[in-house]
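Priority: low. Protein: tRNA uridine(34) hydroxylase. Input follows.
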Amino acid sequence: MAIYKFADLPDAEALQPILAKFCCSHAIKGTLILAPEGINGTVAGTDADIDALADMLFAGPDFAGRLAGAEVKYSSAAEMPFLRMKVRLKPEIVTLRAPEANPSKQVGTYVEPENWNALIERNDVVLVDTRNDYEVGLGTFQRALDPATQTFTEFKDYVAQNLDPARDKKVAMFCTGGIRCEKASSYLLSQGFEEVFHLKGGILKYLEVVPEAESRFAGECFVFDERVSVGHGLVEGDATLCRACRHPLTADDRAHEDYVEGVKCPHCVDDAAKHAAATERQKQMDLARQRGGAHLGDDAVQAAKRARAAKKADAEASRERNKAG
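Result:
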């Protein structure tokens, strides 16, 4: 279950041990972030245990209905994809460092994926991708502006330098799953922008429900798990990760002269420290293979391959559960 919700949780610190104890008692693993502004994270467990967690979050006395209407996505995996359970307490669930951005108080207009194309094709709408540069590099919507940020906190500077509420009367924004856009839209409204729109459910929901023949999204969508990227229908994409710098790699990146599998890529070619660590890790994996054993990194790769196969088989069932929810 992937979940996020901007909600007033001034008691987040008190909720942390309660939520951690509940998840551990139900053998649920993953990461949940609690902050005074809400909750965000992804966890895994059996169907029954995840249902129990949903009841605790949405109908239980601890959160007292404050998480009602949360954005929730369900998916399946052949094996437990997480090693442990972590409930982290942070100042923000999405770090922007702009107190004036409060989605619980004001937020832009949600646009359903089915209505997104009509909006972004209008000449009076400025379309902005709120994700970071390495994510945009894999794929984005046609004619979208790229802020070229490395962290979300830099988005404020991009707005100040490139957008003008007196000129840009209508701004549409999007991100991976919708959470960054909620905060970005709240920030723009606080800066005097009149009409701000954002894609409900993000790129992932768009790729899930909009037919490929009608899609305005070009490329693949970066995701923060071993799939690395997905395409239309949420089918696993072609991108891989550089094991040295964790930058997503396209087919062209992997064909580059500076690419060495498991060691370096064109994006970290000048970082000798990362190369040394990656080289040692690759050496240990190779030695484990020669001994007929398994290295932790090897296990992760093999587990990822099994999970990918299972995810493809389970994709339709997951979509049906999301619709039912």
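The mean pLDDT is 87. The chain has three domains: 2-89, 109-218, 239-293.
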